[in-house]
Amino acid sequence: MDMKKPQYGLAALIALSLVFFCAGYLVWRQGGPDVEPRADSADSVAEASPESNVDNVDLLSRVIMGEAADEPYLGKVAVGAVIMNRMRSSSFPNSLSGVIFEPWSFESVENGLIWSREPTEDCVRAAAEALNGFDPTYGALFFWNPSKPVGPWIWSRPIITQIGDHVFAR
Amino acid sequence: MNLRQYTAALVALFVLLGITAFWGVSQAQARRSAEVQIENKYNRAFYEVMQRSKNIEALLSKGLASGSPNNMDNLFSDLWYNANAAQENLHQLPLSHNVVAKTSKFLTQVGDYAYAITKRDDGTKMTDEDRSTMRELYKTAQALNRELTKVQQQAAAGKFRWSEVQKGISSNFAKGSMSADRSFRNVESQMQELPTLIYDGPFSDHLERAKPLGVTGKEVTAEQAQKKARGFVDFKEGAKVKEERATGTVKGKIPAYGFEFRTGDDDSPNVITANVSKTGGHVIYYTNSRQVDKSEISEEQARTFAENFLKSRGIKNMVPTYTLKEGNTLTVSFAYKEGDVIVYPDLIKVLVALDNGQILTYDALGYLMSHRERDLPQPKISISEARKKLNPELEVEEERMAVIPSDGSHERLTYEFKAKMDGEDFLVYINALTGEEERIFKLLHTPGGTLVL
Q1: Would you say residue A27 lies in a domain?
Q2: B216 has which bridge partners?
Q3: What are the residues whose beta carbons fall under 8 Å from the beta carbon of B194, sequence distance 6 or more?
Q4: Is B84 helix (H, G, I), strand (E, B) or coil?
Q5: pLDDT number for residue A7
Q6: Distance in angstroms (rounded) separating the CA atoms of residues B86 and B46
Q7: Looking at residue B177, what is its pLDDT?
Q8: Closest CA to B351 of A62, A125, A122, A82
Q9: How far is residue B219's CA from residue B256's CA, in Å, rounded to a whole number?
């Protein structure tokens, strides 16, 4: 290679590939917030049928995973129970999907986190127990982490109990 | 420098620029079209709420003017349908919960009120009370529509866009001069708390204020309650309690003490959480976080474990009603049996681990809320008379008496028939006093157990 002659062609090629790389990366990022295809979704589809509540358990366990992955087991059941209680409350939608997909209700639904992680075994058991009517919160409709910033109006709610890092309120 | 090389580099640069510009423009277009679609979706939901709400106002007004019970029937089912549709669409709008809560409650109650009246035993006959409730609802519906119209005008005038508020809320800043949230706040402030409506629907107010009837006895101290919990939990032989602590009080429907026990090895401890009522020291629930990896006992054996558990804890007269298998666990539901009558509201659920039969969860909230000495009425019709009320195509397999919960906090004494039709199983409940068919359930047999629909 002759070092005296600047290799403009080579430079242009490198620039081109750099730009394409960047553009490609941007396009990939636009595809959605870190949502990756689920590997084992085929299993859960196979089990789902109108005669089972596998679909409900799956949806609920995803929200539990998104909202309470680091909470103790009872804290997971409690988050599921709050969703069940909302269905029975007059000021919330009265279906499971209505409650879960109500705008601004759950952070992990808003940012798509519920679709990017497979729920763990204990999230699934917690969801099943909550669907079965187990309610360690005694009718709570709200929960939040007191060490994180939340809207001021939420503190006006009567607190029932604290489980793990979440407080539960009516 | 070579001119040809220079030109080539320049051309390459322009080509790159062109590609980037093209990409940028198409991205912007895609984004705009996605935004318009979202905006349309929200507008559809909003206009749906408005139309349904106008229908509600008209129907309530017609109801007040109508004198025909037959026509009222139609009005009420229309009312129920419109209220449901309005509520459903309201919750699709990108608004924070505190600006739609009261409106949502109003819509639920309108639907619930209409539903409850059509469900009453004596048919759709309006009492003076119903009429005054209806007048209240009508006034509120008028106020709601006035406010919704203002929101609609602001939206149509371009003062806010639905998809814009999203950014506003998530960053906790209200951007621009107006947001949908703020616009809707006026609606909410016009929805005064309604006076307690007197009707018996699944969403009526008095249900939230229900008193626990099964919590009897003297106040207990935290130490007594802890001792009670320790003796109650199924630790399974050999499992040492490593740690034990009080976790404070619980201000639920039943005021309670909370306790935590830890068993198992230190790497993966099993946490058992228990709540014991302050009055009487009843264990309301406990649950064990232990994971069950395999099934080694049959469902039959698991049910026996559950039955023996209740007996050994002094909870008598409970019969298993149905079971549900979920993973390597089995949930067994028990109902209280008074004489020959199954009392479904007095419910205890027990979750059994299918590896060693340990009771992982015990939940007696239903039992403690509703159990009491019941003065069951004498049936006015016999079981053979009740059987004649069934659809003749049903083949009865089992029959017994049962108390079932009905809308509101009422209970009904019924005859329960387990029957078959076209190879499918049903449970039919005939009121033992009136002979009316109260309820019908379809039983679905799945690998996990029987589902009741």
Answers
A1: no
A2: none
A3: B106, B109, B136, B137, B140
A4: helix
A5: 64
A6: 9
A7: 39
A8: A125
A9: 11
- CA distances from residue B253 to A81, B219, B257, B345 in whole angstroms, order as listed: 15, 16, 13, 16
Average pLDDT over residues B350-365: 92
- Helix or strand (DSSP H, E) at B237: none
Q: Give the confidence band of B251 by pLDDT, cuts at 50, 70, 90.
A: confident
Architecture of domain B383-452: Roll (3.10)
Cβ-proximal residues to B406 (8 Å cutoff; 6+ apart), any chain: B412, B438, B439
With respect to residue A103, please indicate whether it lies within any of the assigned structural domains.
yes
Residue B120's pLDDT band (cuts 50, 70, 90): confident
**Could you tell me the pLDDT band of residue A15, with boundaries at 50, 70 and 90?**
low
How would you class B192 by CB atoms within 10 Å of its CB: exposed for 0-12, middle for 13-18, buried for 19 or more?
exposed
Q: What residue of A is the nearest CA neighbor of B205?
A: A90
In this structure, is residue A10 part of a structural domain? Answer: no
The CATH number of the domain holding residue A119 is 1.10.10.2520
Give the three-state DSSP class for B417: strand
H or E stretch covering B437: strand B437-446
The structure's pTM equals: 0.81
Whether A32 is covered by a domain: the verdict is: no
Please give the tally of structural domains in chain A: 1
Among B20, B162, B289, B442, most A C-beta atoms within 10 A, so best to mutate, is B289
Q: How far is A9 from chain B (nearest CA, A)?
A: 7
SS3 B160: coil
CB B219 within 8 A of CB B272: no
Per-residue confidence band for A49, with pLDDT thresholds at 50, 70 and 90: very low
Query: Domain range holding A82?
Result: 42-137
What pLDDT does residue B196 have? 56
Helix (H, G, I), strand (E, B) or coil at B332: strand
Domain range list for chain B: 12-207, 222-370, 383-452
pLDDT of amino acid A36 = 43
Rounded to two decimals, the ipTM of the complex is 0.82
The two tokens of residue A44 are 């859960």
| The two structure tokens encoding residue B274 | 């228990």
* Cβ under 8 Å to B: A residues 84-123: 88-94, 98, 102-105, 110, 121-122
Residues paired with A163 in a beta bridge? A166
- The average pLDDT across A114-135 equals 89
CB atoms within 10 A of CB B193: 8
Contact A144, A166 (CB under 8 A): yes
- Residue A93 one-letter amino acid: P
User: Tens digit of pLDDT for each residue in B290-311?
Assistant: 888 888 999 899 999 999 999 9
Helix (H) or strand (E) holding A111: none
Percent of chain B with pLDDT over 90: 35
Say whether residue A55 is in contact with chain B using an 8 A CB cutoff: no
Q: Is A145 on the interface with B (CB under 8 A)?
A: no
Q: Please give the average per-residue pLDDT across B25-53, as a whole number.
A: 92
**Element spanning A54, H or E:** helix A54-68
